[in-house]
Amino acid sequence: MSLEFIRDKRFALGAGLLAAVSTPGVALAEDQLSAGDTAWMLTATALVLFMTIPGLSLFYAGMVRAKNGLSVMMQCFTITALMTVLWAIVGYSIAFGGEGPYWGGLDKLFLKGLTVDSLSGTIPETVFMTFQMTFAIITPALIVGAFAERMKFSSLLWFMALWLIFVYAPIAHWVWGDGGWLGGKGILDFAGGTVVHINAGIAGLVAALIIGRRKGYPRTAMPPHNLMFTLTGAAMLWVGWFGFNAGSELAADGTAGMAMAVTQIATAMAALVWMFSEWISHGKPSALGIASGAVAGLVAITPASGSVGPMGALAIGAAAGILCFITVAKVKPALGFDDSLDAFGVHGIGGITGALLTGVFCAESLGGAGFGVESGGMVAQLTVQALGVVATLIYTGVVTAVILLVLKVTIGLRVSEEEETEGLDLSQHDERAYNL
User: What is the pTM of this model?
Assistant: First the structure.
């Protein structure tokens, strides 16, 4: 997919195209290098990579028991390396290699045709490819939170490799690729509410159900071992997310500025709503609660960040804070599934909330940029948003289940009970985080 295609599509959402045409000095993207856009996108790319290593690594590592903290960081670090190589070999081509409703083909296998002079609109294609690579890194890393403390490291590598190729890359093409069927229907997913968060959230839920609950869950207390790690990781995610959302404009312009503003506003609102909800429900506010709320807000504003205004961001943040809190604190215990670090509760529910509310708060009357669907207004846009949600839930759920079940009957998914009791740090890596 070219930057020109993305920006043309986004300008066309509502009044953006008219503004671009009628404002002196403003034009649609052309294949001409912009130093300003390139500098911003280099920065944004580094910020998104920073979200996984060290941000997500610390966020997750602090929430598990001490005997598993190093293993979670190892998983995130290794996923970063593995997804990078696979993205260069085949993932980028499937997602952005060519036109087609369901995949981009193999024209860019091994990054064929990518040179120092290749451009995607106003930035080098190398920068665009690497920016998209950082999304392909963090999305499977998010899934780790659902099955933390019990999956074999070898199985994790196979699962993540197959999941990138058969789940993430095709869905990225559906939404963002040239000719992608969801993009063609007018779905608004500016920075990956569907592609990243719903995708990772439902995959995490399926993985948690197929792999099964941790030994002793829910009878045995399994408190986080280092909430300072978790709060530090959440802070890194918050900062890095500006690259995630504002960078998805692929230019240094007003839309990127608004994306940054609404990201900050929604995150703050969700953090406070979760904190106060927990305070009311349990009697005291917690560091884990406000950190989880902040991430829920970041997730929910992601699909909307290019098309809603500040008041829409407040509403989306508030909705994400309360709905994700209810899912984590009430629904998960009631149903009994072991989504260890709430990958589904935060990313799945937050992503669905954001995707659907994008179809409401993108309305110009509510401060947004306008509907992406040419006719029909809010109802039509909500219909397309819901279609994207349902299609992702079904496709990701089914294909993730198939991958995991094949691995389960071939190489197995779980460590043994003895290895789980010992902890994955020692049983999988023969190392300890702390040698006291």
Answer: 0.92
